[in-house]
Amino acid sequence: MHDTRQATARDGAPEDLLHAELQALRRRIGAQILGQQVLVDRLLVALLADGHLLVEGAPGLAKTSAIKALAGGIEADFHRIQFTPDLLPADLTGTEVYRPADGSFRFDQGPIFHNLLLADEVNRAPAKVQSALLEAMGERQVTVGRATFELPQLFLVMATQNPIEQEGTYPLPEAQLDRFLLHARVDYPDLDTEKAILALNRSAALGAGEASLPRRVSQVQVMAARRAVLGVYMAPQLEDYLVHLVMATRAPGRYSAGLERWLRFGASPRASLALDRCARALAWLDGRDFVTPEDIQQIAPDCLRHRLLLDYEAEAEGRDVDGFIDALLSKVPVP
């Protein structure tokens, strides 16, 4: 087995320096977003695995601040769009504007053409807007009339959902949720972290640290890091374990008779692809050139929770999808 970080990336930069740049970015974001290291790591995993992230959590838990901090640390443009019930697909993708001077139409690009997009409270937008966003996420392009426009090569959507208020929302169908690489959940910080947040907020209000701007990671480095992640080694036994986990969501009765009545639908092959890419990205972020069972187990809930549909009986008994995933992880043998 070789050390991928000592190899040379295709852009000519040693991979150990590339890894150091991403680790520095990880620390900078973590220093700004206190108490949400899981969210920070999931954002970076989504960036390295070339996927999109759905984040669920109560208001005020630094979801917006996290992706803004990521945008500030890489050479990429960022846009936030607040999803509302009166939003139209053209508000997201852009629209053709008539030019009276020559009688032609010109396409004005919408906010979706930025590198990083925050789709805030995505479940408040109607189905047509959600479909326009998810089509762009899946196809990496926008079609308006007869013209097709490519999205940037570096394109990451972080969508948020508020689990508290359900009035005036349009829940994403399970088939559309499957387009997201990860579904992360964030919770409240503990007491010490809350006090640290107060101190950090006072420091920011006083302008402390504004003079020293951090070095930004280039898009070339991000692409090189993605190639390095694909080179992270996964043993054949671990690949079998990963596939068995996903297959177990479709036939949980093979592992536990009690689990079979929990579930109506299991995970699609997108879950296997997501687990593979994300486990490699997590291992690379942690400085390893190989995947461990813990990498797969750690990322599995975020890769699976939005791809599973519980049975009505399980919901009536107060069971949730995270409990099912935990039970499944305990039943499928680890190599």
What features would you describe in this structure?
With 335 residues, this protein is an alpha/beta fold. The protein has 2 domains: 16-208, P-loop containing nucleotide triphosphate hydrolases (Rossmann fold), CATH 3.40.50; 232-331, Magnesium chelatase subunit I, C-Terminal domain (Helicase, Ruva Protein, domain 3, Orthogonal Bundle). Helices cover 46% and strands 15% of the residues. The chain is built from 14 helices and 11 strands. It has helices at residues 15-32, 37-48, 63-73, 89-93, 127-139, 174-177, 191-205, 219-230, 236-250, 257-260, 269-285, 293-304, 312-316, 321-331; strands spanning 53-56, 78-82, 94-99, 104-109, 116-120, 141-144, 147-150, 156-161, 182-185, 263-265, 309-310. Strands 2-5-8-1-9 form a 5-stranded parallel beta sheet. Helix 1 (15-32) crosses helix 8. The radius of gyration is 21 Å and the shape is globular.
